[in-house]
Amino acid sequence: MSPDQQHDSAQQHQPPQPHQSAQQHQQPAAELPTSVAFLNHTAVYARDRRVSAEFLAMVLGLTVGAPFGPFLPVDLGNGVTLDYYEMRDEPIQPQHYAFLVPDAEFDAMVARLESAGVTYYADPRHTEPGRINRLFGGRGVYFADPDGHNLELMTRPYARP
Question: In terms of Cα–Cα distance, which of 117, 101, 97 is closest to 109?
Answer without folding.
Answer: 101
